[in-house]
């Protein structure tokens, strides 16, 4: 269980930090939705799946609250398609350059506005695609699932 907790922590901290979502978040949410669906299905007989289902529902609430907080502010339109997040001009070099990274932040040109808002919008869309799963959770997960559904 300790390795599952550590892995989940590593994953979620690279998707959300202080209400900021990152380029990885919408992609991670696609996979976390799939994991949640399986965890819910196996939660009755598998304690690790039960743990994951509860933790993921809480994390989904966090992600969706971030979306709503950002959506209430003035923002750019999202990119037209989820796959636009992978356009070459939006991807950073595979070789990390700390100096280049610092310059981006200093010049406040980290991400174009439409790309940045798309991190939030498509993270919300990923969860929205699994709304039917959230509507059919076992009773023990009904309260956290209701919190997620309220944010959809």
Tally of strands: 2
Instruction: Report the order of strands and helices.
Output: HEEHHHHHH
List unreliable stretches of 5+ residues.
none
Main sheet attributes: strand count, strand direction, barrel closure: 2 strands, antiparallel
Q: Specify the overall morphology.
A: globular
What is the typical, i.e. mean, pLDDT? 94
Task: Give the helix/strand class.
Answer: mainly alpha
Radius of gyration: 17 Å
Q: What's the tally of helices?
A: 7
Question: In angstroms, what separates the terminal alpha carbons?
Answer: 30 Å
Q: Which sequence of strands runs across the widest sheet?
A: 1-2
Strand content: under 5%
> Considering DSSP H and I runs of 4 or more, what fraction of the residues is helical?
55-70%
Question: What is the gist of this entry?
Answer:
By secondary structure, this protein is an all-alpha fold.
Keywords:
152 residues, mainly alpha, two-stranded antiparallel sheet, 7 helices, 2 strands
Write structural notes for this entry:
With 152 residues, this protein is mainly α. It is built from 7 helices and 2 strands. The protein has a two-stranded antiparallel ribbon. Helix 3 packs parallel to helix 7. The two termini are 30 Å apart.
């Amino acid at each position: 269980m300790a390795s599952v907790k550590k892995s989940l922590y590593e994953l979620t901290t690279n998707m959300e930090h202080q209400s900021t979502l990152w380029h990885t978040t919408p992609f991670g949410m696609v996979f976390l939705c799939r994991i949640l669906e399986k965890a819910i299905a196996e939660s009755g007989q598998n304690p690790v799946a039960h743990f994951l289902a509860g933790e993921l529902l809480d994390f989904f609430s966090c992600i969706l609250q971030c979306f709503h907080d950002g959506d209430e502010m003035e923002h750019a339109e999202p990119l037209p398609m989820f796959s636009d997040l992978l356009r070459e001009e939006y991807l950073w070099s595979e070789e990390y350059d700390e100096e280049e990274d610092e310059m981006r932040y200093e010049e406040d040109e980290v991400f174009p506005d439409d790309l940045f808002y798309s991190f939030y919008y498509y993270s919300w869309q990923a969860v929205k695609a699994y709304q039917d799963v959230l509507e059919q959770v076992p009773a023990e997960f009904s309260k956290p699932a209701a919190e997620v559904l309220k944010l959809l």
